[in-house]
Specification:
Strand content: under 5%
Oligomer: single chain
Radius of gyration: 21 Å
Distance between the termini: 53 Å
Number of helices: 18
Order of helices and strands: HHEHHHHHHHHHHEHHHHHEEH
Shape: globular
Largest sheet: 2 strands, antiparallel
């Protein structure tokens, strides 16, 4: 039996819990920032990972699926504008985009996706995700609500808390060794939380009221065309990100998952997991790079370990007090983490352009990148049948359109 073969053993349960611990900080960060239920996110990460494994059961990659950062901005806007149920209908549709792409890959091959969504399109789309979110991070780091309209924590306390959380996260990511290097977000949150306790701004009243066992606040989707049209194009960025993650885990395990089970199956599994998560009111799923890093460190290539991580996530989802504890994390702590997180997202977009050696002396490339950024960030809005179309989604569609119609340099 090869190290990458699926081998379900009871003794791997502790290792599975360890991998969940690595993913935990980022997993619950998305629902906390977007107004969703962290317990639901735990549940949907678990069932999403199990569904992914079932779809790719002939050759299971050792990856864990959980909350996607790419959707933070659209979920936040959607929840504030249409509510959680309507936003979920858009996220179900986004998952179906992955499914459609997986079938197009079956018909036309892997190169089709790279032609439709080259780096010159994907890079600035990813950049715009981080840049659009940056004001929210700054406001929260200063103790305000995301839109800056309400002061939640006095500035003097908030800025100390957020900066400590930020610097702990940065220092751990730079200087941490072994497993510590894989959990900088979690350690940053813990550090900021301890400082918040010192300032006496943590409210524990909700923990006492919460039960030990409780059903997560599942929310069924509610069909809403506006939410669907707004969120649908966002799926472009994480679809490309999925390819990078599959390439990374292939390099780590020396098993070419791009060929077997192939992108046509891994993308299908990711898409179905995202749509399934949204049916319960959870954030879209994506493959977690930090878990891939943990696989690299531990050399634990057995994909059944991720099954245990998924089972642990599902069980923890029903611990009512866990969600109540997460709800006590003060706004400045999350703001400090977000300052780094959203900056990294923007930087990853630049890295995508750099790695692809995109030539910016070419007017065609300049036009595509500049229009994506300006349309995404500048507030441009188009109305189709009374439905406003703006932000990252509009920028992504403009980029795909320009890439298809603009003539290439001779």
């Amino acid at each position: 039996m090869k190290p990458t073969d699926y081998n379900f053993r009871m003794k791997d349960s502790i290792l599975g819990l360890q991998f969940l611990f690595v993913a935990f900080g980022a997993l619950v960060l998305v629902p906390i920032l977007t107004g969703l239920d962290p317990n639901v996110a735990l549940f949907t990460a678990g069932i999403g990972t199990l569904l992914f494994q079932f779809v790719n059961r002939k050759c299971v990659p050792p990856i864990f699926l959980a909350s996607s950062f790419a959707f933070i901005a659209p979920i936040s806007y959607g929840v504030a504008t249409w509510g959680i149920a309507a936003t979920m209908s858009g996220l179900v549709a986004a998952g179906l985009v992955y499914v459609v792409l997986s079938f197009l890959i079956r018909l036309k091959g892997d190169n089709f996706l790279h032609k439709l969504l080259p780096s010159v399109v994907v890079g600035p789309v990813i950049m715009s995700i981080g840049l659009i979110l940056s004001p929210v991070a700054v406001n929260m780091a200063m103790g305000k609500s995301g839109d800056g309209s309400i002061v939640i924590v006095p500035f003097e306390q908030a800025i100390v808390i957020s900066m400590i959380a930020l610097f702990i996260t940065i220092l751990v990511s730079l200087l941490g060794k072994g497993m510590f290097k894989l959990v900088p977000i979690l350690l940053g949150i813990i550090g900021g939380y301890l400082v918040s306790l010192y300032f006496g701004i943590v409210d524990f009243s909700g923990i006492a009221k919460a039960s030990w066992f409780g059903i997560p606040n599942f929310t069924a989707p509610e069909f809403n065309w506006q939410a669907i049209i707004f969120i649908l194009p966002i799926a472009i960025a994480p679809a490309i990100e999925h390819i990078g993650d599959m390439l990374a885990i292939s390099n780590v395990t020396k098993q070419d998952y791009l060929k077997n089970p192939g992108l046509k199956n891994t993308l299908l599994g990711d898409g179905l997991a995202t749509s399934l998560a949204s049916l319960f009111g959870g954030p879209p799923n994506t493959t977690y790079s930090e878990v891939t890093g943990a696989v690299t460190v531990t050399k634990a290539y057995n994909p059944a370990i991720m099954t245990w991580a998924a089972i642990c996530a599902i069980l923890l989802a029903f611990v009512g007090k866990l969600g109540a504890i997460l709800a006590t994390i003060p706004v400045p702590v999350m703001g400090g983490i977000m300052l780094l997180l959203f900056g990294i997202i923007a930087t990853l977009g630049m890295s995508t352009l750099s790695k692809a050696n995109v030539d910016f002396s070419c007017p065609r490339n300049m036009a595509i990148v500049s229009m994506i950024l300006v349309f995404s960030i500048g507030g441009m809005t188009f109305n189709f049948g009374g439905v406003p179309f703006a932000g990252i989604g509009l920028g992504a569609i403009v980029g795909v359109f320009l890439n298809l119609v603009l003539p290439k340099a001779l």
